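Weekly sync, protein design subgroup
Attendees: M.S., D.O., the rotation student, P.L. (late)

Item 1: inverse folding check
M.S. brought a backbone from last month's batch and wanted to see whether the design step gives back something sensible before we order anything. D.O. pointed out we never logged the input encoding, so this time it goes straight into the notes. Structure tokens as presented (151 positions):
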């Protein structure tokens, strides 16, 4: 795949965007994190055209973000639902960071219906950079992206 950045698979951002870079994709993940699993739930929440939603759900399944499973309500035909994989649940950190960025740099007068909290305490959480070894919090002003270029 790797259509982003000329297919440079060394870039983790390009590899991520290969799965997540389409419009609606992260909104589907947001809704899945919020408990949506069924096509109708995603469509009702997002208002996305059916053919677009079908394509995005398929790409998320192919990308390992969602898993398609079958369920059968009593007295009804079997249906499919979409459940987050571990990779999909890991995207909660991405959405937490995106939401925090928007709250700081693109604020809205309307209150958000999306909150990220500690499941055990209910306390609000925020995204933070921490060092790998000592787990020390690093302020964004000290965070650097280092690109080692090879010729």
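Designed sequence read out in the meeting:
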């Amino acid at each position: 795949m790797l259509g982003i950045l000329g297919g440079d698979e060394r870039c983790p951002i390009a590899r991520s965007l290969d799965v997540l870079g389409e419009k609606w994709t992260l909104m589907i993940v947001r809704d899945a994190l919020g408990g949506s699993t069924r096509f109708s739930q995603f469509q009702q929440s997002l208002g996305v055209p059916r053919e677009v939603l079908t394509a995005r759900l398929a790409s998320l399944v192919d990308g390992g973000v969602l898993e398609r499973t079958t369920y059968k309500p009593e007295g009804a035909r079997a249906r499919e639902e979409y459940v987050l994989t571990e990779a999909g649940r890991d995207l909660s950190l991405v959405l937490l960071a995106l939401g925090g960025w928007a709250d700081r740099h693109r604020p809205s007068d309307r209150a958000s219906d999306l909150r990220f909290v500690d499941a055990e305490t209910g306390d609000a959480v925020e995204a933070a950079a921490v060092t790998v070894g000592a787990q020390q919090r690093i302020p964004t002003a000290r965070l650097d992206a280092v690109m080692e270029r090879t010729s």
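Discussion: The mean pLDDT is 91. The first strand starts at residue 66 and ends at 71.
Action: P.L. to compare against the previous round before Friday.
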